[in-house]
């Protein structure tokens, strides 16, 4: 998430020691409590939302609302090889194409035209 290297981390630690000095342990404990409270509030809000939606949405996951996840789940689930992002096309019987035997398109090759689909 954060692109912080070892050098930057050392600088941040030294800066924290200079700014907070002997109060650093109490500041760290206070930040930990605040983070725990925020997580508890988020979990409570999520639970309240799931209870409010009713039993038909018991499998509802808030991560599904993320546009990236939605696209990946609903549009890209037909990928044969998700690591490369390649589709395998099944060609109509009347289409002529020089694609490879496994149905993958070659470089610069257009997918087969199906007049029934348009």
From TrEMBL:
Membrane topology of the entry: Single-pass membrane protein
Pfam families, A to Z: TatA_B_E (PF02416)
Any one annotated GO CC term: membrane
Region (Disordered): 80-118
Keyword Transmembrane helix among UniProt keywords: yes
Compartment annotation: Membrane
InterPro entries in UniProt: TatA/B/E
Keyword tags: Membrane, Protein transport, Translocation, Transmembrane, Transmembrane helix, Transport
Superkingdom as given in the UniProt entry: Bacteria
GO terms, biological process: protein transport
Record flagged with keyword Oxidoreductase: no
Signal peptide: none
NCBIfam families per the UniProt record, alphabetical: PRK01371.1-4
UniProt-recorded name of the protein: Sec-independent translocation protein mttA/Hcf106
């Amino acid at each position: 998430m954060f692109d912080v290297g070892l050098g930057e981390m050392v600088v941040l630690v030294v800066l924290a020691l200079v700014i907070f000095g002997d109060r650093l342990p109490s500041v760290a404990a206070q930040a930990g409590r605040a983070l725990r409270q925020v997580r508890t509030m988020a979990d409570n809000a999520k639970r309240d939302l799931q209870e409010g939606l009713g039993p038909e949405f018991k499998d509802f996951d808030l991560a599904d609302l993320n546009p990236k996840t939605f696209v990946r789940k609903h549009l890209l689930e037909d990928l044969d090889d998700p690591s490369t992002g390649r589709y395998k096309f099944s060609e109509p019987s009347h289409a002529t194409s020089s694609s490879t035997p496994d149905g993958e398109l070659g470089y610069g090759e257009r997918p087969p035209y199906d007049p029934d689909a348009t």
